[in-house]
UniProtKB/TrEMBL annotation, chain A:
One of its GO terms (biological process) is chemotaxis. It comes from Desulfacinum infernum. This is Chemotaxis protein CheX. InterPro entries: CheC-like_sf, CheX-like_dom. Signal peptide: none annotated. Residues 56-119 form the Chemotaxis phosphatase CheX-like domain. It comes from the Bacteria. Coiled coil: none annotated. The keyword Glycoprotein does not apply.
Automatic annotation (TrEMBL), chain B:
It comes from Desulfacinum infernum. This is Response regulator. GO terms for biological process: phosphorelay signal transduction system. PANTHER family: CHEMOTAXIS TWO-COMPONENT RESPONSE REGULATOR, STRESS RESPONSE REGULATOR PROTEIN 1. Keywords: Phosphoprotein. Residues 4-123 form the Response regulatory domain. SUPFAM superfamilies: CheY-like. Coiled coil: none annotated.
Length: 147, 140
């Protein structure tokens, strides 16, 4: 994906995290390249006039994912059910993709349904993704990829 | 007057956020009824009267547009104002939703004040007091 997609993705992530999850992240082109245990949320954006499909994925370390869910819901992250974390991250992917579509042209793209799961989060290819850190610590990756 | 509100969204988190924003809005809230999709909402509306419906568009089973179509076929329900709370930004689809009877839409993510301002205006409520005799148009 070209640089424009990446900039659009970063802008969308920042706005959604600030507005609904009361947090912000710093993006970094160089990020740890090892897989980690955490959460991955994904959604597809379908081009309206071609068969093009772009997948957006967000991968977060478990503790940060729980913090995001807790912030959104106004709850304590400790003891938060996995189902609540999964749902909060699905909605995050949904809103980030929605914002991407606004920036890219809402007439040209439509959203699929988001999904999220816990497990091993593998690093994206260097050209597709960016790392994210919060309070000076690496917390995850974000990437867009043409499917 | 306490308002009964229905929230329709397949995301439990988003329903929770909307509930929270409703409760802090200053609007007197009666009952909040939740549904995960349009079909569940129609089923719930058989047994619950609501004054306002807040609905997502993109949902499995029955999406928001189909919900609006079906709602419009119920004579006793088609005056209930529906506000779409959605990530949809395609103007044609939003126009279709308005033509199907939605009164307004609010884009996710949203600030609580945007939400409050829209809902209060739609219901003809100002600062917790109903606007007496207001027939102000509420189409956005």
């Amino acid at each position: 994906m070209d640089g424009n997609w990446q900039e659009v993705m970063k802008a969308a992530i920042s706005e959604v995290l600030e507005t609904m999850y009361f947090t912000d992240v710093v993006f970094q082109q160089k990020a740890p390249s090892e897989a980690f245990r955490g959460w991955q949320a994904a959604i597809e954006m379908h081009a309206s006039d071609t068969a093009a499909v772009v997948g957006l994925s967000l991968g977060f370390e478990d503790s940060f994912a729980r913090e995001l869910a807790a912030n959104m819901l106004g709850l304590d992250p400790d003891g938060m059910p996995d189902e609540d974390v999964r749902d909060a991250l699905q909605e995050l992917a949904n809103m980030v993709a929605g914002n991407c579509v606004v920036l890219l042209g809402p007439e040209k793209w439509r959203l699929g349904l988001p999904r999220a799961h816990s497990g091993l989060v593998a690093p994206p290819a260097a050209t597709h993704g960016v790392g994210m850190s919060a309070a000076g610590h690496f917390v995850g990756w974000a990437w867009c990829r043409r499917e | 007057m306490a308002y009964n509100v229905m929230i329709i969204d397949d995301s439990k988190s988003m329903r929770h956020v909307i509930k929270k924003v409703l409760k802090i809005s200053g609007l007197e809230i009666g009952e909040i009824i939740e549904a995960g999709n349009g079909q569940e909402a129609l089923d719930q509306l058989q047994d619950h009267w609501v004054d306002l419906i807040l609905s997502d568009i993109h949902m499995p089973v029955m999406d928001g547009l189909e919900f609006l179509r079906r709602l419009g076929t119920h004579a006793d329900l088609n005056d209930v104002p529906v506000v779409l709370v959605t990530t949809e930004r395609n103007e044609k689809r939003l126009a279709e939703a308005m033509a199907l009877g939605a009164r307004a839409y609010l884009s996710k993510p949203f600030q609580p004040e945007e939400f409050r301002s829209l809902v209060f205006k739609l219901l003809g409520v100002e600062h917790g007091w109903e606007l007496a005799g207001s027939d102000e148009g509420c189409d956005f």
